Isochorismatase (Sporosarcina luteola), 175 residues
Amino acid sequence: MEALLVIDVQKGIVESGDFTGELDLITNIIEDFNKVGKPVIFIRHFDEEEESPLYRGSEGSELHPSVKGFAEVVVEKQTPSSFFKTELAGLLEELKVDHVFITGFNTEFCCMFTAISAFDRGYKVTFIEDATGTANTDETYEMPGLDIRDFVGTVLHWSDVIEVLDYEEYVEVYK
């Protein structure tokens, strides 16, 4: 069974930039999974620092309106991995999931950590590169010209254990 993980599509991240393209792709993939009755699991990150845009109880910690209406199952987390000290592994086991698809935010943190953690737990993992986004930039990392999403996608692809696709490839292979 395949399941879609929609990671940290929250106001505090999404409203920090123009993520229209990423949100459109994420929504399309959610609709694909819903049409065929495959599980869609939303992951929501919380921070305990009041200054964080994802502070528990803040408006920024809420799911973004573009996806909120789809969220029937939400797993809460406090670290980059959606598996660490959460109910995700048990939920996936209960649903008999053996293949997870990764979408959401931030590419180089929560999406990447979750993809690696899923692989470590024996899941087949498909990382849909252009259906992830990040609030960070090349300036954040003091690496002029760095394309964060492409870099993470390349590293995961080179691992030869995580399938990395763009949306068009996902449609071709899985839809």
Q: What stands out?
A: The CA atoms of residues 22 and 68 lie 15 Å apart. The first strand starts at residue 2 and ends at 7. The chain has a mean pLDDT of 96. The beta strands are 2-7, 40-45, 74-77, 99-105, 124-133, 163-165.
